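FAQ: What does the model actually see?

It sees only this:
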Amino acid sequence: MTILDRIKKRLVPGKKEAFEKGKGLIILNEVSEAMQAEKMLKGLGYGVRGVAPPPEIRKGCDLAVEFNLIDQLGVERLLKRSGLSPLDIVALDTLSQKPLDITKEKDFGRYLMVTAANMKITVDKEKGTIVNISGGGCPDVPYLTVSLVGKKITEVENPRENGYSLCAYMLEKAYEKALSIVNTRQMRESA
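And it is asked to produce this:
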């Protein structure tokens, strides 16, 4: 058993009976730190997601990591071990505004466009095919576009597997939302 496996065994949460009892936000100084924290915590089994923090608590960057407060001790230990230092950890019930989902969707009849920040993915709802990727100015966007357009959204790799930038991160969020919508639609149609 590797050291990482032992850490996972000790710190990864078990069943989440108290999942909805309380949520908190990890506020970090830089977007790259928030991306790193989210990826690490997800990889270790924590229920986290990137969100836009409300303006009242925005201190460093425009991205925060939402997590379950019941996991706070383990989350803080893992962040510390990985060298990430949150500017703050805030319980959502103490805020006057809630965090914003970073994705938005627009239905164009046959086509569905999902945006996350300035990245957009458009899918043909009938065929499940990605018809367009747009936005961003990061150097990995052209490669991501070529690797995704014309393929079924249910059969491609997550954009973060082939990209490394903030644009790839935002495209991942748009992709995950679009994939969820397409999968839900397909399940309804097959029922």
